[in-house]
Structures are given as C-alpha cells and as structure tokens.
C-alpha cells in the first residue's frame, strides 16, 4: 500500500488492499496483456499504429489506476483517463461509422464523468472532506447520491437502458480494443458500484429490488436484441448487455447484509465473463479478416460453451452458485427464491439461444471470405494470434478448478440433478434453434440490422453544442498604404511638411550615432 495523503489529498493512496482489488487486477491485467500481444500482429499493417498504441496504453493505465485506488479521487482520475482514452480506440479506423460511434461514445462518457463527479462531491461533503473508502463506509447515503452513482457508473457498465453506446462502439473498434472494452473496461463500472456504495446501508436496501429487476430485464433484453442482428461483433455487444445484467443482480445482492456470501460469486462472474468475452471478441476479429481452418472453431466454442454454462465449465459453476445463493439468502422486497431461480433458468436458455445465433453468424461471415492466406508472414501472425486465443481458453478451463471461489461452488462434486439443471436450457435452445431453421421462420427483413435511434439523439445533441452556423468575429484587413494616403488627405500641408522634416532629422541622427 502506498500512502499519498501527505502529498495529495486526505485519504489518497494506492494498493491492492482487498481480495476484490487483487482479483480485479489479475483478470484485467491478464486480458490487457493478451490483447496487447494479439495486437502486435493483428494491427501490424493497420494505419496510425502509433495513435492506436498511445490510446491503448492510456486506457490500460487508467484501468489499472482505478482498480488500485484506495480513495475516490484516485478512482475518478483513473476512470476518466480510461474512459476518455478509449475514444481513440473506437474511432481508430477513421471511417464514417467509427466517427459516428465515437461521437456517441464520447458524449455519453462525458455525461457519465459529470454524474460521477457530482456523486463524488456529495459523498465527500457528507464524509467531512475525506475521500478514502473506509471513511465513506461510515457515512449514510442519500437517494440523490445513489442515483447519480448508478447513472454515472452504469453508463460505463453498459446495462439497460445505459447500454446504447455498446452496439455502436464494438463494431467500429479493432478486435483487441473491443476485447478490453467488453472484458475489462465495463467491469470498471461494476467495481465502482461496489466500492462507491457501501454494503448494508439502510437506504441502499430500498434500491435492491429495483436493481435486481433491472438486471434481469437487461439480461433478457440483450439476448432478444441480439437475435435481430447478423454482425458477430454487434451480437457480442448485446451479449455483454445481457451478461452485465446478471452481474448487476449480484452487485445489488452484495449491497444487502449477506455481502460476504455474494462477493466471491460476483468476483467469479466478473473474471469468468471478462476472459470469455475477450476471447470471443478476438476470435470475431480474426473471423472477419480471413478464412480460418475448421479446427480453429474450438477457440470459439470453448468460451461460448463456458458462457452457455455447459457442465464442467466455470459458467456452470457460477449459475449453480447463483441458484444456491438465491435459495438460501433472504430476498428483499417482493423478490423470492422461486421467482429468481426461474428467471435464472430462463436466462440460461436465452443465453444459449444467443450463442447459437452467434455461431450461425460467424459461419455466414466465413463463407463470404476468400481463401487467400496472404503468405508466410500472414500465416505466422495467424498462429501467434491463435496462441493468444489458446492462452485465454486455457485460463477459462483452469479457472474453475484452481481458483478457490469457484471450487467452493461444488463444481467438482456435480450430481446428476445438478448436471441436468445446467444442461436442459442448452438442450432446449438447441431444439428451438433446430425447429426454427427447419421451418425457416424469419421476421420481415426490415426488422434486422436496424440502426439505433439513439444516433439521431446523438446528432441532435451535437447540434446543441456545435451548431453548424457559428458566430465568427468580422475579419478586418488593413491596407497600410491606403491608410497613409487617407491620413495625408486629412492632415494640413504644414503638418505634412513638419512630419517629413522630422523623419529626415531622425534618419540623419541615426546614421551619425550608428
């Protein structure tokens, strides 16, 4: 721990003081490093590489700073650096789609910064000018601070209805940037909700049922919206909206008095989703760029099946743990264990539908690519990128068996009822998908791949702060010769002669003394 109170502001410090910070640091750092290694060859022939690496490094630095922050100001500085620097990753390609997505991203990022800053000021004022997390835990919350914090951090976390930048930014950004955006950066908003809003606050308890309902709605909305799109990275973006919904459910449950039981599960879900979604975005980038050997599909199915909660995966352990958790802990408000278990089962079915739809979109994209391999150098780069993907897949495989929070979810003692409980949603999704394709059921074509109406709002907002007809100061051009003649006409003859005599005297004096 590094104490910076004497140098900066009260409570300033950096360090990985809690298990929550340590885990967040490990999985975020792992994903950033793999994405950077992947970028070495994936972005080797891209334009503006220096700009890409500059914004990549700034976003990475901001992400690591906010995780290690022991006070709110350090968190806010890291959060701002990460959020604003990611704009350079979104608009990297420079085309119209990227600029439009970048404008929307930047607008919402700045709004989120302002909302979070307002919440920070209110919280620090209530804490008597202290900014460290320990001091904040002793001070009760108010509704305005809770609302500002959820809105400010939710714009980065990306749950419904604050998700609107995700489906625009991910298709525009390069694949490694999308991997860290979805895997690491949106988790910063989740981490902020945990550390900014202390568990057990009586007023915060009133928000738990609403946040749980919002989380489940986001989980369902993300899947249904993804089924209306056919571009893999857009489908993955809506998948993030869906998966973050479950994380928000766990965050809300962590605000209750049972936070000690919820936090390990929350950390497991965040780490598992970050690695799996990072791997899927990297694979989607490769899939859109060149034809891949059939064997490479295993690099897609390993993270996809983990998120579908297939038995013996980390996703199965997490879903089993969530059902066990809601069955044992008291539910606040109108929530009950039976309703939440039913929603989790329905969510597992919808998640399986999403990834089966994504698999079809990836196969369709591959069929439209040529067989040109690009030579030996391209093949070497492809194998390097495959090695990066294999590393993430290996982490996913080992995570539930080596990391103790997932070991505690009884993954290694699965019984037949537990296996059936996590398997039937996947089997039902396979059946439904097979029937739909056999019957060739489709919605009308205009229903697919529609542009978000939020882009119109973004353009309207742009016109407010950057009108096309801006006031400009009148340009004044002065012709010194014309001005001299005008003055001569206004001056009398005696003044002109006197001025000429004075100039002659000054010239003579200057030549003498020089």
From TrEMBL:
This is NADH:quinone oxidoreductase/Mrp antiporter transmembrane domain-containing protein. The chain crosses the membrane at residues 23-44, 51-69, 75-92, 104-124, 144-166, 178-198, 210-228, 235-255, 261-286, 298-318, 338-362, 382-403, 415-436, 495-513. InterPro entries: CPA3_Na-H_Antiporter_D, ND/Mrp_TM. It is a multi-pass membrane protein. Belongs to the CPA3 antiporters (TC 2.A.63) subunit D family. Keywords: Cell membrane, Membrane, Transmembrane, Transmembrane helix. It is found in: Cell membrane; Membrane. Residues 69-289 form the NADH:quinone oxidoreductase/Mrp antiporter transmembrane domain. PANTHER family: NA(+)_H(+) ANTIPORTER SUBUNIT D1, NADH DEHYDROGENASE.
């Amino acid at each position: 721990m590094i104490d910076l109170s004497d140098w900066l502001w009260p409570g300033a410090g950096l360090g990985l003081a809690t298990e929550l910070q340590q885990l967040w640091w490990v999985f975020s750092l792992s994903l950033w490093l793999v994405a950077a290694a992947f970028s070495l060859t994936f972005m080797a022939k891209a334009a503006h590489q220096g700009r890409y690496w500059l914004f990549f490094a700034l976003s990475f630095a901001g992400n690591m700073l906010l995780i290690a922050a022991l006070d709110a100001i350090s968190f806010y500085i890291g959060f701002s650096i990460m959020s604003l620097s990611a704009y350079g990753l979104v608009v990297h390609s420079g085309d119209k789609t990227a600029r439009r997505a970048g404008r929307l991203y930047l607008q919402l990022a700045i709004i989120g910064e302002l909302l979070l800053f307002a919440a920070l000021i209110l919280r620090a004022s209530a804490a008597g000018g202290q900014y460290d997390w320990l001091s904040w835990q002793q001070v009760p919350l108010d509704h305005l601070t809770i609302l500002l914090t959820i809105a400010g951090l939710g714009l980065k976390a990306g749950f419904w209805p604050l998700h609107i930048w995700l489906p625009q930014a991910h298709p525009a950004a390069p694949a490694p940037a999308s991997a860290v955006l979805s895997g690491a950066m949106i988790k910063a908003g989740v981490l902020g909700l945990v550390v900014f809003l202390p568990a057990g606050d009586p007023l915060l308890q009133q928000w738990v049922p609403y946040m749980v309902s919002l989380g489940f709605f986001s989980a369902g909305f993300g899947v249904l919206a993804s089924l209306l799109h056919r571009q893999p990275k857009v489908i993955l973006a809506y998948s993030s909206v869906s998966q973050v919904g479950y994380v928000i459910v766990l965050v809300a449950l962590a605000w209750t008095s049972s936070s000690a039981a919820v936090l390990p599960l929350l950390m497991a879900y965040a780490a598992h989703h970050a690695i799996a979604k990072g791997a899927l975005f990297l694979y989607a980038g490769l899939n859109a760029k060149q034809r891949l050997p059939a064997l490479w599909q295993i690099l897609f199915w390993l993270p996809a099946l983990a998120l579908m909660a297939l038995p013996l995966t980390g996703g199965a352990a997490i879903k089993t743990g969530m059902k066990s958790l809601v069955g044992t802990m008291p539910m606040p408000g109108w929530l009950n264990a039976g309703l939440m278990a039913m929603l989790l089962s329905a969510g597992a079915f919808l998640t399986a539908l999403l990834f089966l739809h994504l698999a079809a979109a990836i196969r369709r994209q591959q069929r439209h690519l040529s067989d040109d391999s690009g030579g030996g150098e391209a093949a070497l780069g492809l194998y390097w990128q495959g090695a990066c993907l294999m590393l993430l897949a290996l982490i996913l495989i080992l995570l539930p068996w080596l990391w103790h929070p997932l070991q505690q979810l009884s993954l290694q003692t699965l019984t037949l009822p537990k296996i059936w409980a996590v398997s039937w949603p996947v089997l039902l999704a396979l059946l439904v998908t097979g029937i739909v394709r056999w019957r060739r059921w489709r919605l009308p074509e205009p229903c697919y791949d529609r542009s978000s109406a939020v882009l119109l709002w973004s353009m309207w907002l742009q016109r407010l702060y950057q009108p096309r007809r801006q006031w400009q100061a009148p340009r004044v051009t002065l012709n010194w010769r014309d001005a001299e003649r005008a003055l001569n006409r206004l001056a009398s003859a005696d003044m002109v002669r006197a001025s000429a005599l004075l100039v002659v005297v000054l010239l003579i004096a200057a030549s003498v003394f020089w």
